[in-house]
Amino acid sequence: MHWRAKGVLQKVLGHVPGGERAHYLLQRRFGGLRDFRREFDIKMDDWRLMAGHLQAAGRPIAGARLFEIGSGWYPTFPFACYLGGARQVITVDLNRHIKPELVRDCAQHLARHVALIAEACGVPEDDVRQRQQQLAARLRQGDDVGIATDGVVRYEAPADASRTALPGQQVDCVFSNSVLEHVLPDVVDGIYREAMRILAPGGIMFHSVNCGDHYAYVDRRINQLNYLQYSDRQWRQWDNAFLYQNRMRAYEFVDRAVEAGFDIVLNTECPREKRLAELANMKVHPQFAHIPAERLCVTSIDFIGRKRAQAAS
């Protein structure tokens, strides 16, 4: 599908009654959700990487109090954290996107990843398997996410991650996966400020950001730097409620975290030769011309910011 056509279609669906439902059905029939197993396994690989980063930063998932930004259609990360022994996982979304049928599928597919979760979290495999079987059974009988996880996972939507009702200094880790690239820049700053408030001293904020042009996943004629050819005014023709992309570069997410008071303890920003070559063969819009090529070309980043132990809430 041509990327411009998809952008226009999604823009239209974002402004008509029933558009959200129609968008979901199109994703199930033609989009990323048509092969749920593949989509789910990709998310679990992302979760595995996050679990490793948290472990290396001294904040293992087992026993942790976690706050996820961007629940999506099904709660892969919260469920995996629950199976791995998290104390609490609060997951929030600005809009209520969660789909019961996908939640059940998610719980069922976790059975294939029991050993991975146990290893990543350092907990007994039998405990993970028992929790997974209980979770899947309870969801099948109609329990909601909270009841099915004995209150460990709490889903809240609509909810604003930049203005929560949580008490200060009560969370060990705030995290997101492929979310911040879809948030207005000012809201990113608000999310960071709120994370600083709710994190306990020494707590961490982990974000995995996919800051490449997402239309490249549906149109192989373009690459993930495609959207850098357009001004903000031009890009608004294809930006839409279902696939808003802020076009912030990887380093900007980290710089804004530093400005919010976080100490950066992980930063995977790395220019790839492939992206540098793609950038050299395209005409970048002047609004991006001030950014060095080795920073402009980066299309993904994982980073961790730590709240100082002596920092105030």
UniProtKB/TrEMBL annotation:
Occurrences of domain Methyltransferase type (ranges): 157-206
Pfam families from the UniProt entry: Methyltransf_11
InterPro entries (alphabetical): Methyltransf_11, SAM-dependent_MTases_sf
GO molecular function: S-adenosylmethionine-dependent methyltransferase activity
Alphabetical list of SUPFAM superfamilies matching this protein: S-adenosyl-L-methionine-dependent methyltransferases
Recorded superkingdom: Bacteria
Protein name according to UniProt: Methyltransferase type 11 domain-containing protein
Organism of origin: Dyella jiangningensis
